[in-house]
What does this fold into?
Amino acid sequence: MFLRRTLLALATAASLAPLLGAGAARAQSPTDPRVVITTTEGVITVELYPDKAPITVANFLRYVDRRLYDGTTFYRASKPRGQVANDYGAIQGGLRDDVKKKLPPIAHESTLKTGIKHTDGAISMGRYAPGTAQADWVICIGDMTYLDATATDPGFAAFGRMIDGKPVAEAILGKPTDPNAGVGAMKGEILLHPVKIVSIRRAPPPDPAAAASTVAPASTPAAPAATTAPPTPAPASAAPKA
It folds into this structure.
């Protein structure tokens, strides 16, 4: 499968990262930290799950709080061969070769332990062998659960999901790549013009008082049911083979 091959080839120029999306069954929690990734293409908001992946989330937030991601880039866009649409693939960002800013590697948190699946929107760490992840990560567009751990495969460490900004992620995925840049599985997937990450900041926690003020009093009549159901999203395409 194209992305697994890509992730395992992350070595050299960039520590490759798996994709986005946490398990779809997880309910959003006001205590889960959120970060706002501001790029020159727009804003992406990611929700992190420290209760499920405490080591990986803490590592990511160390980079955020020290502002080590400011001025970095999304530098890679990975799609199946021949795919034109921007609705399936992964975008990779982080420090790339900036060794001076990288913090020590962290322990691997298997999806078998965390329960955070590589479904649409997952953010996941890039690595070489388990226990080598440092600063680079990917956001996936589309389900890529073949990156989850199995009894014989450690998989990759997802630690949150994108909750807003998917059109921005798709726009980055659609940027032109340099056919001659990159090595191995990464060849042809390096952006001709990397998208600048202006900043990554924690979003302010929700204000409980403000949230309570939006709750209608018990005597307020309920709003009538919608007359039309929201559109049903198309099923995710199957993961392509290499």
